[in-house]
Fold these 3 entries.
Entry 1:
Amino acid sequence: MSRTDGLIDYLIYDLQYYLQVPVVNRTGLAGRFDVDLTWDDEMKWDGTGHYYFSNPDGLKRVVLDQLGLELVPSRESIEMLVVEKVK
């Protein structure tokens, strides 16, 4: 996962994509950053046609080891748009 001159919000977007869970930015970081993370992972497909990544814990570890950012599970209210029907 690489970003050049990206905002922290771009990293949050990428983390949500790879982890398939909401990620809330509580870092307080501002500015632009270069990020280049590499970890052992593989995209796989389940029986319903959805993809997932085989090593989310590896991503969490590399974010901590290389960026010093810890991903902490928590429960909180977040705004979400739900589309119930498309015409």
Note: The mean pLDDT is 88.
Entry 2:
Amino acid sequence: MARTSEESLRLVPGSIREAALALGVPKYRVTVRVVLSSAREGIVTGALLAMARNRGGDRAVNHDRARQLVRLDPVGSADPGDALVIFNFATSPYANWNALAWGTALLLVLIMLA
């Protein structure tokens, strides 16, 4: 995340910083208002990638565990945030399972963005 944020900050053109300073804006306000607002998308992307990488580290173990649990009890025992369960619910013919899958996916995205 630090590397992505650093690269996003470096990609902000120096001419924008110089223009804000030439208008008499204090340096701290240039950093907060101009530089950070210009690099915000890259910083958010870096944060999301870092969280996904952190969560994906134990994916293989959780995936195997979820497959075993799904075979025993496809509805109740599996981790509801597991990608396999969400996929199974999203591709099922039942409308309420589809709604649960899309709701869970939305909730996971909102948690990552918070």
Note: The helical segments are 2-10, 14-22, 27-56, 59-72, 83-90, 95-113.
Entry 3:
Amino acid sequence: MPGSKIDSIPLWPLLLYATVVVVLLAVILSLSYILGQHHRDRATGKPYEGGIEQTGSARIRFSVQFYLVAMLFVVFDVEAVFIMLWALGFTNWAGPDI
């Protein structure tokens, strides 16, 4: 709708901010690459460079019950958030007498 408040908001500050962020990101990443250490030691490619030699594979199998418990936890955790929000909204709608 012409003449509304949204049309009269200038967008140049947002574009300037986005440009400054992108330029700073490029400068920081390039300086990190140029000034950073470049070495390829024997232990650099290994995970957990803690001085402890690896004894086996890190790939272990988890049982299906582990994934089931994890999914149930996420579902009920999200459900609890929605129930709390619903209860807060209900008390605001019904008034403080409940």
Note: The radius of gyration is 27 Å.
